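Deviation from plan, reported transparently: S-adenosylmethionine complex.
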Amino acid sequence: MELKDLQRHWDEFSRKDAMYAINTRPGKENGQWDRCAFYQTGEREILRVQRYLGNKGYSLGGQKALDFGCGIGRLSVALGPHFDEVIGVDISPSMIAQARVEHNSKSNLSFVLNEVDNLAVFEEASFDFIYSNITLQHMAPKYAKRYIHEFVRLLKPDGICLFQLPSRSRLDRENKSLFQKVSKFLGIPPSLHRRILLLSNRLKWSILRRPIMEMYGIPSQEVIACIESCGGKVLHVKENRHAGQYWESFYYLIGKAVI
Ligand SMILES: C[S@@+](CC[C@H](N)C(=O)[O-])C[C@H]1O[C@@H](n2cnc3c(N)ncnc32)[C@H](O)[C@@H]1O
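Because the crystal trials were delayed, the predicted structure below was used instead.
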């Protein structure tokens, strides 16, 4: 999906039910998320990030943090107490509009709409911490890689960035989904499963006008090569379950390589 389409789909999700689009927990669809419970998931996530960074010898704090793909600010607001300033950036005008209303009482939070495949809106070497969760997984790898280059550019020399990205679908090797069982029964080869899923999603949009949440993975070796190709340094890689049971997913903790 090209960036303009990605924006259209996310904006549609946001206008329908932003909290469920962000955190698709079963039973929370159609406006069922309790506001407090929704933001508590963000607080717990940032607490886990703080512990993880501590274990690796880093601290969560400083002057300026960026939350890439901020949605309505679930994680930006949880980062707030740790930084002088937190900026959330998102491609969806509706997400950004809701984030501004939701958090207008927090003077150190601001939200920026960015509709392009770079982060030129921000100055080089200006962030102590950059965080991105369950965002890069929803865009074609060519875009995810461009934003990873931008993360490295935006980091201060001693800044750190933690982002999440799936590496590959587990559907290829685990016979778990109904879709896969049916495909096996019909004799459809596993190599075609992903293409069929993408095609059926696109039909859902063109016929039913239902927005699509595409999922992509990039093999870890490719992600590491991408980080290193633009002057970044991999500090640690940790597996997580953020992309759901059908995807192998990792956190990449990165900094700037010393020249
Ligand atoms: C699943 S939501 C996650 C929101 C937030 N990271 C959280 O965990 O609460 C994904 C978000 O990424 C945003 N997004 C998708 N593509 C983007 C892009 N190219 N640039 C910035 N934001 C993007 C969507 O609009 C959406 O708000």
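The first strand starts at residue 62 and ends at 68. We consider this an acceptable substitute for the interim report.
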